[in-house]
Amino acid sequence: MELNYNKLAMVDKGCIKELDGNLNYGCYIKTGRLLSLVLHTLRNSFTYHQSAQFIEQLSNPLKIIYIQNWKICPPGKPLKKIDHITEVAFRRNRYKDLWHNKMEANEAITATLKVLYKHIDFTSTDFLEDSLKKEIMQLCTIKQ
Fold first, then answer.
1. What's the fold here for domain 5-141?
2. Which Gene3D superfamilies does the record cross-reference, listed alphabetically (predicted)?
């Protein structure tokens, strides 16, 4: 069952609305699906214990998105770069309207990480690869 992203956008402290505005989607459903895909890509690289730590940082609406359709599985390979997140998300994407190619996927995922950076302290998670944390921090501190 799919989440009601229109309702979540009203209570998620601006995450979906901001991302939707940044990407000019004009559709909270599409934006919510993207956010879900990025959060699930991160989740699938974590152990169960790491996910429990990560969840502590999320607002309740982001927790709902994070745990949606969660099946406990062995963690995937650690994500070392934003390009790795893009690669995995591009392969696992089941919503064909999110993007048409890897360049669009990378732009959407980068925009998503920038918004998430405002809501999640990536630097305090000791299980994220240092190279990924550094890349996200650099991305988010560049003046637009």
1. Globin-like (1.10.490)
2. Uncharacterized conserved protein DUF2267
CB 16 within 8 A of CB 5: yes
Rounded to whole angstroms, the Cα distance separating 132 from 144 reads 20
Render pLDDT for 114-125 as a digit per residue (tens, 0 to 9): 999 998 888 888
Domain limits, the chain: 5-141
Per the structure block, which two tokens stand in for 125?
Answer: 């998670």
Contact 57, 121 (CB under 8 A): yes
pLDDT tens for 24-43 read 999 999 999 999 999 999 99
Tokens of 40: 């699930």
Number of H helices, E strands in the chain: 8, 0
d(CA 37, CA 109): 9
**How far is Cα 48 from Cα 30, in angstroms, rounded to an integer?**
28
